[in-house]
Amino acid sequence: MIPLNKLIHNEMMKLIAKKRLVVIAIIIGFLVAMFTYAQYKEVERQREKLGTDDWRTMIQQTIIDQQNRISSARISDEWKKQLQISLQQNQYYLDHDINPSEPGAPTFMRIFLENSIELFIPLMVMVIASDIVSSEHSQGSIKLLLTRPVKRWKVLLSKYITLSLAISLIVAIAGLLSYSISGLVFGYKGWGAPVLTGFTVSDAGLNTASVKLIDQWQFLLMDFGLVWLVAIVVGTLSFMLSVLIRSTAAGMGVMLAALISGAILSNMVSSWESAKYFFMVNLKLTNYMNGNPPPIEGMTLSFSMMVLLVWWAAGLFVSFFVFTKKDVF
Amino acid sequence: MNKNVIRSVTIVSLFFCILWLVGLGLAVGEYYAGKPDKIPVKTNVEKQVKKKEGLHIVALGDSLTRGTGDETGKGYIGVLMDEIKEKSKQDVQLTNLGISGQRSDSLKQQIQQTEVKRQLQTADMILVTMGGNDLFRGGQALLEFETEDIADIEKKFLENMNFIFQQIRASNPKANVFFIGLYNPFIDLEQGKEMSQVVRHWNYQSAELSASFPNIVFVPTFDLFELKVNDYLYTDKFHPNTKGYRLIAERVASLLTW
Predict the structure, then answer these.
(1) B236 at A interface, C-beta within 8 A
(2) For the segment A138-181, what is each residue's pLDDT rounded down to a tens digit?
(3) Which of B171, B178, B211, B217 sees the fewest Cβ atoms within 10 Å?
(4) What is the per-residue burial (b if ≥16 Cβ within 10 Å, else e) of A87-126?
């Protein structure tokens, strides 16, 4: 019998030889550079418009803009409520003299993570996860692998562990690249900047009773944890599809459709309540930390995590069940 | 392939895997078990505010300050800004705090915010439009034409404005304040004459109030819209249009001193 660590070593070797991680790093690097530039332009434009770079003035203007939009009769109740929550949050930051976006690379990293948790990071994960099993089929190497004196579940487990490690690495790469590239423009300081968390959103609007003040590095670590969880769940589901569907392209297509529908659904499902059991509506976990309202009322961090874990467990079970049973030819 | 490369990639990945798990644990812990902090509300405005080069103009008020009805989106503030920039050759910073539909009691709240006070402190000029929503209430004034009611509303309005001006003077004793008066958008309608009378009285009282404070100038606009009111009104027959805003801006511009 070949021990598990040898198998993992073998899988790791295949992963590195494929150079997928390098491709992913390049993609992330490109995008981060683009976002950095866009953010820089945005700050520039704001400064020009307001004639100052004082954050208090800027946030005050944002509040006024939001108040004006709320007072307009032509916006939907839904949108009005969201604006109200955002407004109350801004006002809270202003009243307590805390800059919600202290300029610097850590803040950029935080915003990048919060915006990429739902689609971008899962897509990167898919690049690796969706062909980790099916490529063995298309290359015919699955037969060689399975003729070894190793239990099938062990082969699959080694692949799954390798995938999990690769996902951890992808999340780390995203963090490192967004920090180092944006730092060139915004500076590398800001780890200790205060960040507010613990806003809760209820029917009555924003509740600030349990607001906590934490350092940005702590907040970032938590964000990373949540991004990682989402990446693992999406990775596991792609992994399952890779076991189920021999064609890598088809597996990727299904997963892509699911992810994109999630992004769209999140914006319009508020009245279709049972949609909250879809994994793709629950991907924006960071919203619970920064107090953005969830897509469907009543969703909480534990609810979303439970949903994700159920999907994760189901995906894992199906993968192992099918892989150990299926005929290989 | 080099064994060591593979091993080190594996170890690094494993390290991050554990780190992210810790982060996840922290997130859940913080979300459910973290104790709320007492974060002090900042109420005192720093006495020494960095005075920047150039002019700082603060605009307070309602939709007129926002420029509702102007197709170019500028409003009287925008036109005035252009003029000031051209004439003064200085950098002009505008802080527009106007909120559409705002009435005097809500402005009274707004003006007590710490940040608004801070803005007022650094201002070189303060522009105020207020009263249109108090008096006309989106046209309701035409339907409920009870002189007693309007007298009550006017009294309340003047009290609010008195408070607002006191606050402005407390934050900033020096800056010139321009208080833009009301015009009568309903002058051509059936009860236009009666309404005009009300507006004139309202403006008179506003002017009296302004005069009781140093450097607060009441800017009349009633006469601007008196003849041919429809040429200067937006299609909602309430807000000024581009031409109407230009009239107001020109009037304010003529009062500026350097």
Answers:
(1) no
(2) 888 888 888 888 888 999 999 999 999 999 999 999 999 999 99
(3) B211
(4) bbbbbbbbbbebbbbbbbbbbbbbbbbbebbbbbbbbbbb
